[in-house]
Amino acid sequence: GGTDEIHKYDQFYAHITTFNLPTGNLTGITCEPSGDLFVASQQGPVSIVYKVDRDDLQVLDQFEVAGNAEGLQYAQDDTLLVGLSGGVGIARVIPSSPSMVLDTISNPGLLWPVPVTIDQVGNRYTGDFEDGGGVAASDLYVFAPDGTVVAARQPSELHGPFGLVVAGVSLPCGAVPPG
Questions:
Q1: Beta carbons within 8 Å of 117's beta carbon, 6+ residues apart
Q2: pLDDT digits 0-9 by tens, 31-80
Q3: What is the rounded distance in angstroms from the CA atom of residue 81 to the CA atom of residue 79?
Q4: How confident is the model over 105-139, as pLDDT tens digits?
Q5: What would the mean pLDDT of 149-158 be, rounded to a whole number?
Q6: 116 contacts 124 by C-beta, under 8 angstroms
Q7: Is 135 in a helix, a strand, or coil?
Q8: How far apart, in whole angstroms, are the C-alpha atoms of residue 50 and residue 150?
Q9: DSSP 8-state assignment for residue 44
Q10: Pick from 138, 147, 38: which is nearest to 89 by CA?
Q11: What one-character DSSP code corresponds to residue 121?
Q12: Interior angle at CA 74, CA 70 and CA 79, nearest 5
């Protein structure tokens, strides 16, 4: 699980406000190109994903995704990638209610896809959060859009990780620009 609140800062890192979402236990967060947020909340066998207005922090929409959501990433095809723990994988979902899972990428070694990011051709990058145990080195994966493994390092020299960035890829507010 994660935290129960989100802190908003300005461009100079001055604290503006703190806000909560109804269910707490917040894990993943990402933005769409307009700057509105998507925030995941683990709620037992399902997770609730909230769409939150970037200015007034009001909930604009919410939908459920089966499983415990970890990482979130807005994708260039206007879908949302949701890293789901427990060996489920990375689901690609429609980011509005009623949501639906379009497809899921999984791998036997991928148990806790905490960071999720994407490059401009749609490859999905993730790190297995220490196999969920907190002590083992992480496995790193790159999946093609069709789910095949492009690259993997099992185990890597990393512990964690909570975030990944693809060098040379411009992702304003965590979103891949269309085109």
A1: 73, 124, 125, 126, 164, 165, 166, 171
A2: 888 889 999 998 878 899 999 998 888 999 999 999 999 889 998 889 99
A3: 7
A4: 988 888 888 888 888 888 998 888 765 566 677 78
A5: 79
A6: yes
A7: coil
A8: 31
A9: T
A10: 147
A11: T
A12: 105
State how far the Cα of 17 lies from the Cα of 65, in Å rounded to an integer.
Answer: 28
Task: Name the residue type at position 50.
Answer: Y
Q: Which two tokens stand for residue 85?
A: 């723990």
Tokens 């989100």 found at: 6
Residue among 138, 144, 151 at smallest CA distance from 111:
138
- pTM comes to 0.85
pLDDT at residue 164 is higher than 80: no
Q: How far apart are CA 158 and CA 104, in angstroms?
A: 25
Q: Are 29 and 41 in contact (CB under 8 A)?
A: no
